[in-house]
Amino acid sequence: MAIRNLSLKDHWQEQRLFVTRILVATVIIVGLTAVLIARLVQLQIFEYERLSELSQGNRLHIEPLAPTRGLIFDRNGLIIAENLPTWQLVAIPEQIDDLEATLAQLEGLGLLEPTARDGLIELVGSHRGFERVTLINLDEERAAKFAVRRHRFPGIDIQEGLVRHYPFGDIAAHAIGYVGSISTADLGVIDRANYAASSHIGKTGIERSYEDALHGRVGFRQQVVNARGRVLLDPATEAADGQGILGGLETRWPTPGNNLVLALDMRVQLAAAEAMKNVRGAVVAMDPSNGDVLALVSQPSFDPNRFSEGLSRADFVALNEDSYRPLFNRALAGRYPPGSTIKPFLGLAGLHNESVGEHDEVFCPGHFSLPGQTHRYRDWRPQGHGNVELHDAIVQSCDVYYYKLAVELGIDRMETFLKRFGFGSVTGLDIAGESIGVVPSREWKRRNFSRSEDQVWFPGETVIAGIGQGFTLVTPIQLAHGVSALAARGERYAARLLIGTENGVNREVFWADPQAIEPINDIDPEHWQVIHEAMKGVTGEPAGSGYRVMSSANYTAAGKTGTAQVYSVAQDAEYDEDEVDESLRDHGLFVAYAPAEDPRIVVAVVVENGGGSSAAVPIARQVLDRFFAAEEYVARQH
Amino acid sequence: MSLGSIDWDRSRSGPLHGPPRFQFSCDTPLLVTLLLVIGLGFIVLYSALGADAGKLMRQGVRFAAAFGAFFVLAQIPPHYLRTWTPWFYTFVLGLLLLVMVNGEIGKGAQRWLNLGFVTMQPSEFMKLAVPMMVAWFMHDRSLPPRLSHLFVMAVIVLVPALMIERQPDLGTALLVVASGGLTILLAGLSVRILAVLGLIGVCAAPLHWVFAMSDYQKARVLTFLNPESDPLGAGYNGIQAKIAIGSGGLFGKGWLNGTQAHLEFLPERSTDFVFAVMAEEFGLLGLLLLLTLYLILVGRGLYIAAQAQDTFTRLLAGTLSLTFFVYVFVNTAMVCGLLPVVGVPLPLVSAGGTSMVTLMAGFGMLAAIGGHRKLLAP
């Protein structure tokens, strides 16, 4: 130590060295500070706009606002689908200590079903803590029941909402359809942004076909959220001062959906539904002058309100698997053999193709056989009709006449002619689910049978096609549509339910023009006349198959009865209604239009397993009665 | 603000009148600037703490303790400091050992020592002890240091640094190395040796990566190199800080109006990222004001160092000033994405106790060196 202390320290030298180092350090400090400031200038001046936007995006949450769904009216302005205020029971997950216990207590009050508990726990669990989760819709009484006990349920609240309501319930369910919760399948086809606030979507019928028009456009409201997504201020309830972190919020209100006016006449619809109350089948009523569907009933039906209010899975399965299939739209997709209702069309085909003259007579012994064959094709009247010409063959529904006519025409001409009336194709109705039915032909057989021996067309198949049996299948709406063309002498219109659209914002109504389609304009007017007279005879002549029920009407109707076999009776055996199982009984059909001279309404009725046309005619009568009573009522008012 | 110049009984004190009476000593420019920075820091911190006066009060208590350290150290003549340096260094080294054996674990690292009434981070004291020890070692040796001196100084610096790095606390370890290294540089380390050391450092970095760095440290470096790779995970802090700074613009969103901070998008907003809160609310102009104040502190410190009379005070004052700048730069550069995220608080502004106390203790020693040089002057 002592020696080292003696070594000379050059203070001046050391001071100089140190100061030099300090100066170098200062230069470095200035340099680094310059780099730092350059970076700050870059971020705060040059990238200001971009980063500012990012910061806005951070703080703003866009809450979508659901548009009000459009209303649906019938042609007279009656509301058939509306939105009713409802009370919704909601949960705010983060405020609930014990979800299971809370739900159990709510069940104790009768507000929730115990069976729904697991589903609700899952539903609540799939939301973030601050989000309001709708548990169930409550009626007034149950909402009140909860309201007085609200303090006992932290994290459970009631709020107002809208629920789709169908005041006519099951009366027109298959035409209007229903709305239900948006499914994952729906999510694939919709504009998800537009449905951000919507919980329901049209599932069937008009609700589905015109979903876009009914739904409207989503609105939004900007909210300030923190990093965990909690909303800090709701500008709708508190005034934003336009300053600070809660300022500058924007709101765009949703655009309500359009209201729809349907061709349906609920008076006629109600009469049809009422008449069908105890049977299965379908009724379609149409205006032959424009294709308007005045009534569309499929029985059994269902209450569409159950879907909009929220149907439990078990209830849906029960409805879907009901053996009478209430969800199935028989009017559009039910395929039935037309039976004798096909006869006016084939009679016209015979006249038009000169296969038969108006007054050509056929002797009906009660059965028919093809030349060289022993198989007997029976007439519904075992003792036969004697000598019949076309008029009587329609009025009395002689089968033998039509067996012969079918053989004369041949299956190819039958096919061509029937297709011109819309059989074998959709009617163009503006709701989904139509079946095209079957108009059989050689080609059709070739395509639809796999075994080569089945792909051959047999002459006997032509014979039974003459009375609308065998392969021929039609839907009730096809029948109504075909008869409309018949009634309007070949003028044809696409079937339609929608006739008007009312803009949801400015209330302007747009009335749609009827859509004319390929007319049948090469028929001799006299031939139309023959068929029309014959159909008038069905209801107006004592021998007519519809006379008993229709003759007392105060309007002149024209029609045709039909009976479609579900069950083949063996040769030489008798069909005995009482012996046959109900589900194998004949379908009863009836088509009609009225007034006969100036048709304003066409009705097609199918009664499944009704035992015969006698089940169908009274139903058509009630529908027509109601229609004309309503017309008369209106006429008296003016 | 005449606190710095309180100098009672001056007339009766002096070198010729026996042992000097107690004389309150304090460097006025240093004190005024410190108070300005801390005042500004309180304003920012109040906002960063979510306008919570209670939390600010707690920080106020820490500041009071830190000022206590400042004023006490400002009164101690530097030659006492020099005498105590080896003891202080050994004491802190002992504390570090204690932490390794019996430390509190927080955020995955063993850094804290619970003294019953207060928890503290001994590694923070190393930021002072290491440069003091290096300066003490060089004090009666002639500058520039020889190679053998260099070896001893490397041991003084690296032993505590490695202990801190094992905690693991890479940020503090690097700052300790930086402070010791700066002392050595100021002592006149030759440029040639510096270049060789730099080369060794560059070569050692990959080895360090493979053998010494833990996964979270590697993640931070990788995130720094490519922050967008994991915007919601490791890169989240950096990205949100950048948004906060940039959206502040030239003038800022205004006090208490920083959406990034108040809506909690910005992490660690009262501690390591408080600079971003200031950037968001006070804009570029606010930051320039703060940086100016920091540079005044650094400049004043370097001036004191240049005026200092002996090797120990000269090296200590220079190192304290330069390390202060390093803290400022590392934190701000980290917050604006120029450096990887390392846990370094913004000096004098970030909430937190120990670093505040060591910083103010450092400034206290600076003030002492500045205030006592006249007494030693011929």
What does this structure look like?
- The complex is a heterodimer of chains A (638) and B (378).
- Chain A has 638 residues and is an alpha+beta fold.
- Chain A has 2 domains: 166 residues, Alpha-Beta Complex (Penicillin-binding protein 2a (Domain 2)), CATH 3.90.1310; 344 residues, DD-peptidase/beta-lactamase superfamily (Beta-lactamase, 3-Layer(aba) Sandwich).
- Chain A is built from 23 helices and 24 strands.
- In chain A, strands 2, 3, 4, 5, 11, 19 and 20 form a 7-stranded mixed beta sheet that branches. A 5-stranded antiparallel beta sheet of chain A has the order 13-12-24-23-22, sandwiched between helices. In chain A, strands 1, 8, 9 and 10 form a 4-stranded antiparallel beta sheet that branches.
- In chain A, helix 11 runs antiparallel to helix 23.
- Chain A is elongated.
- The N terminus of chain A is likely disordered.
- Helices cover 67% and strands 3% of the residues of chain B.
- In chain B, strand 2 and strand 3 form a beta hairpin.
- Chain B has 378 residues and is mainly α.
- Chain B has one domain.
Bulk shape of chain A: elongated
Work out the oligomeric state of the chains in this entry: heterodimer
What is the number of E strands of chain A? 24
Number of domains of chain A: 2
Give the domain tally of chain B: 1
Quick take:
The complex is a heterodimer of chains A (638) and B (378). Chain A has 23 helices and 24 strands.
Give the SSE map:
The complex is a heterodimer of chains A (638) and B (378).
Chain A: H1 2-6, H2 11-46, H3 48-59, E1 60-65, E2 72-73, E3 79-91, H4 99-108, H5 117-125, E4 133-138, H6 140-147, E5 156-165, H7 173-176, E6 179-181, H8 184-189, E7 200-202, H9 205-209, H10 211-215, E8 219-225, E9 231-233, E10 251-252, E11 259-262, H11 266-275, E12 281-286, E13 293-299, H12 305-309, H13 313-321, H14 330-333, H15 343-352, E14 362-364, E15 367-368, E16 377-378, E17 386-388, H16 390-395, H17 399-420, H18 442-448, H19 459-465, H20 476-487, E18 492-493, E19 498-502, E20 509-511, E21 516-517, H21 525-540, H22 547-550, E22 558-564, E23 587-594, E24 601-607, H23 617-637
Parallel strand pairs in A: 2-11
Antiparallel strand pairs in A: 1-8, 2-3, 3-4, 3-5, 6-7, 8-9, 8-10, 11-19, 12-13, 12-24, 14-17, 15-16, 18-21, 19-20, 22-23, 23-24
Chain B: H1 28-48, H2 53-75, H3 78-102, E1 104-106, E2 109-114, E3 119-120, H4 122-139, H5 147-165, H6 170-186, H7 191-211, H8 215-225, H9 236-248, H10 259-262, H11 274-307, H12 311-335, H13 354-376
Antiparallel strand pairs in B: 1-2, 2-3
Helix pairs in contact in B: 1-11, 2-13, 3-4, 4-5, 4-6, 4-12, 4-13, 5-6, 6-12, 9-11, 11-12, 11-13, 12-13
